[in-house]
Amino acid sequence: MNLLRKLLRAGEGIVLVASFLALCLLPLVDTAGRSLGGFHVPGSADLVQSVTLWLTFVGALAATGQGAHLTLSTSQWLGEGRLGRAARWVAGAVSAAVAALLAYASVQVVRANRLDPRMLSIGVPEWVPEMVMPLALAAMALTFAHRAHGTWRGRAAALLAIPAAFAAGLLPPPLASKAWIAAAGILASLLVGTPVFVALGGVAICLFFAQGTPVAAVSAEIYRLVASPTLPAIPLLAGAGYVLAESGASDRLVRFFRAWLGFMPGGLAVMVAMVCALFTTFTGGSGVTIIALGGLVYPMLRKDGYPEGFSLGLVTASGALGLLLPPSLPVILYSIVASGRDAVVPADRLYLAGLLPGLLLIGLTAAYGILVGRRAEGPRSPFTWAEALGATWKAKWELLLPLVIVGLFASGRATMLETAAGALAYAILAECFITRDLHPVRDLPRVLLRASALMGAVLILLSVAMGLTSYLVDAQLPDALLAWTRVHIHSRIVFLLALNVLLLALGSVLEIYSAIIVLAPIIAPMGALYGIHPVHLGIIFLANLEVGFLLPPVGLNLFLASSRFGTPLPRLYRTVLPFLLILGIGLLLITYVPGLSMALPGWAGKG
């Protein structure tokens, strides 16, 4: 059994690394081919779509085995006792049942697509790679049941949830119409650790079933997302971020910022804010930043005399900075989801619009750090040109990466996907062959596997969330909310204030990717009703979710920092409160001063 498990894990790893590298090489070959006489890979767009599909589902299977799927932070309250074990069993049983239903829905999609005679350029029918969906989801169902309990009796009991779920599909119409009760139960299971993607997929299945729509509609919506020419940029940029995080880049960047800023009062705090924002920009979320950099910068702050509470609060808050700056992954996703028939929100405009607001939030955090630094009167690093230039030279490859990404995309010679592929290739070249921090054979596959598990968890969540969004649109929920808003809220200022409160609250309990998928299609038409520019609305949306990471009692950064530093949550609430107030001021400025968002797009002729 152990040998079989090792062989399956090895095969899983080979597929994921190969998928990552293929996803990187295909766009690069097309980019280079355009410069060398028009050469291109035949059918590369379809190949990229198939590779992304494999990366999504095999990565999701890897995340299941590692317990790495995104969950609500509330499950951590339950501890390791009897209550915690019961909660994990419930989460495992619900997850196994929903994954099995999604596998069945995917089989229906593949069967329908078999009627299409189209072939990939490698001579394989298009439906063949799609088989990864039901196979991976079925394996995930078994894995969820296996992880639900430490005994075979408990695992068998969790496994029984699968036939029970299918039996529920045979209920007569009067009872089937009550499927919303099951949907409410699945949502409630989020509180005990059910992955977010399971809850969204399960709710979508229940709602479609109650409506009499085939559950295959949930899996069919995957293609609406995977077929996007921009979506594969998300795993590629995340891969580049992971390569940087696993190398010595963090040490070089810390040295760079300290060399240039260490002479200032509060210079170390400014450095922490800036380097954390840079890592969050590349990794697409605060988790990697707090886990990877927290252990490096927190002791430095304490050694330099900063108060313990301030140091904890700064690292926790700084992990949320940078999500508005290029090449942030949530910006790309918002561009994909919010663009529709009524409005198009290009990623390049969002990046331009988010630059000043993003720098504002970093600047406010840094300014508070300077204020505390003056009071702490800790030792300062004397500025010397030799150290500043030496640190810059050592960090030159990491410092050039943002310029390479922005330059490629802004030049118009590369699409967002090609730019992301170039970023990953650049990061691998720099960290494996120039700085040699990572061995290309021993270390790089391990780093790409970690990135694959994260991206599998994110992409499967996006896929099933798109199914729920499809139901909400079919049920005309956005239209109903629009009509209610038109009747009850007459002031643009009141609408924006209500939007801030709503998004902050939801941003504290929802993972940012699922929040974008579910909420953006609903919020976008409401913003248009009040004459809010769609690009400005996007910046408001993302900034609120960014600050929501810090909102007690269940903001994601609070739980990450509590776990990383072994600090009780009530104490963390007190330490982040000043930062929450400061960032709240920045959020109000971003919301009510549209010039912050629209100045740079207007200056660049993209307003």
UniProtKB/TrEMBL annotation:
GO terms for cellular component: plasma membrane. It is found in: Cell inner membrane. Residues 186-596 form the TRAP C4-dicarboxylate transport system permease DctM subunit domain. Residues 23-152 form the Tripartite ATP-independent periplasmic transporters DctQ component domain. It is a multi-pass membrane protein. It comes from the Bacteria. Keywords: Cell inner membrane, Cell membrane, Membrane, Transmembrane, Transmembrane helix, Transport. InterPro entries: DctM, DctQ, TRAP_DctM. One of its GO terms (molecular function) is transmembrane transporter activity. The chain crosses the membrane at residues 47-65, 86-107, 127-145, 157-175, 181-210, 222-245, 265-298, 310-338, 350-371, 399-428, 448-473, 494-523, 535-560, 572-593. NCBIfam families: dctM. PANTHER family: C4-DICARBOXYLATE TRAP TRANSPORTER LARGE PERMEASE PROTEIN DCTM, SIALIC ACID TRAP TRANSPORTER PERMEASE PROTEIN SIAT-RELATED. This is C4-dicarboxylate ABC transporter permease. The lineage of its organism: Bacteria, Pseudomonadati, Acidobacteriota, Holophagae, Holophagales.
